[in-house]
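ok so I'm stuck.
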Amino acid sequence: MHSTSACDATPAAGVLCCRPVSTPDFNLLLTLDVLLTEQNVARAAKRLQLSPSAMSRALARLRETTGDPLLVRAGRGLVPTPRALQLREQLGPLVQAAEAVLRPLQRLDLGMLERAFTLRCSDGFVENFGAALVDRVAAEAPGVRLRFVQKIGKDSTGLRDGSVDLETGVVSSVMGPEIRTQALFRDRWIGVVRKGHALIGTRPSAETFARARHVAVSRHAGTAAAADANPINDALAALGLQRQVVVTTSGYVAALALVRGTDLIACVPERHTANLRAGLHAMELPFITPPLSVSLFWHPRFQADAAHVWLRGVVMGCCGGGG
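replied:
not stuck anymore, here's the structure
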């Protein structure tokens, strides 16, 4: 058995003394299971492809570890002690679970799969792709449940601690270097106004566009971080211009709701907000902005997990691949 050291306080002397602490040898679980099943050292040795002497030594170690004889003589055979009978009831599930862990991955049976997955994404993603994703999951794996949680930041904490299975968004420098990514689709920025807006039917210059009243989107709306640079601000700044932002919201849903009832302009990703923009007018921006690449993120612990691989494929399919 392996051992480490632990330190105990000695009250009388007020000093620390170290004693070895044994770490259980989990290989003995299988040995004990076979011994208690066979109740015969020679037969147990044959099953485990050991010599009888090696099996006898293993039994001696088990007796020392458990502090119980486990198997005792009764005539010409061995019989289990009460402690051994108690252990035998516990051993079966333990050994089966260990064998399942070490068994090669079997083909996934989607019809029998029962699992809950948490996806962290924006409201716009759920609005545009959520229904198709739910329908396909229900058709292929009816026992699977999905949970959508709001994306309020770009850190990788949820993926790292396992509270989030998948996340969608734009690759950020604050993400952990170990996070796996897969491109879902490319998007572009557009301007959105209500029907009847004064800019409809015109080709506004960048200057005219910047002077109009805007609603901006920032996850940090209401804080100093709301003024952080973004692709729209950066593109206008390169031209020596600045938007007239009169309202800031934390998401596209709220921004487009304001656009419906005002003369505000919202700059949003075209594909990401397709359903949200129903009934509104979209326009080309009068300046160049870099394209958006929306990706899927997950932690490497799930890289080879069959159910996770399947769900990633479903998300990819619902989003139309990486084009």
